Amino acid sequence: MSKEKTMQLRKLIAPFEKSDTAASVWQIINTIPPFFILWFLAYQSLDISVWLTVALAVVASGFIVRVFIIFHDCTHGSFFKSKKANAVLGTITGIMTLFAYEKWKRDHSIHHATSSNLDKRGVGDVWVMTVDEYVEATPGRRFAYRLYRNPIVMFGLGPLFLYLVSNRFNRKDARKKERNNTWFINVAIVVLYAFMIWLIGFPAFAIIQGTMLIVAGSLGIWLFYVQHQFEDSYFEDEDQWDYVKAAVDGSSFYKLPKILQWLTGNIGYHHVHHLSPRVPNYRLEQAHESAPPLHKATTITLKTSLQSIRFRLYDETKKTFVSFNEIKHLLNAQKTSTQFQTKR
Q1: For residue 54, what are the CA distances in angstroms to 96, 99, 174, 195?
Q2: Which of 50, 156, 167, 335 is least buried, going by the fewest C-beta atoms within 10 A?
């Protein structure tokens, strides 16, 4: 994309890069209290039916996703004008969602700065291997990659890994502020969970909180996955990589039904978010509608997004994602060549 078109696009988005305190406060009101009400109702429903409890916990998980979007905006400094207000609310919502505010803020900023850059993978993103890397990899590394990309592992065990491991520990080079924030959130979670278990008992707490977090975590990973793993997604080496193209062509427009769009805080407008993380979630749709060039972003729906499950490897030659089955012939050719060389 030319500099002129880039400047024009940024100019169209600029008016939406300011937070609205009233809109932010209203989002807190229509998100956090309903979540606690649903949690309370789920507990009360245990006397009626455990299945009703699970159903209410599933509904509450949608609000946890919405709480996470508030947390997410705070890490970008886009929810409130005040840096301190973002940090305080980000820490509170981090406790609610089991995410460490300062840690995730750093990792996610790296994700935005390196998204779709083949030479800078590995921080805050989904593990993606190219076809050539996979063909040349050892059997052990291939197995690890296939296991990682297995839907049961990614969307079933993935949330547990995030909650119990990834979000609980800092990287070795983390600054003191980040470490202190992570440990504060860890301690707060332990104290809060211990209190709730003492108050209502472990079985009730496990059924409600466990269901809610697993469902919310799976939904969150799914959203993050499909917004970058679509057939013609953009990936380039460092010398060819372009930030704007990575945002517009490397992030999808996930067109969801209105209720799901609301629960997910408009994060389906991911191309807008990657272009300008300073746009609050409640202004993403307006920003998209006001900028015609953004209408060309790849649009996926609930139905078409399911196809992304089979996209496992990125083919640099064809500039597209492919399945494991599509590269079987390359592996067979490699195996034949190895056997031939061994016999010689």
Answers
A1: 19, 23, 38, 21
A2: 335
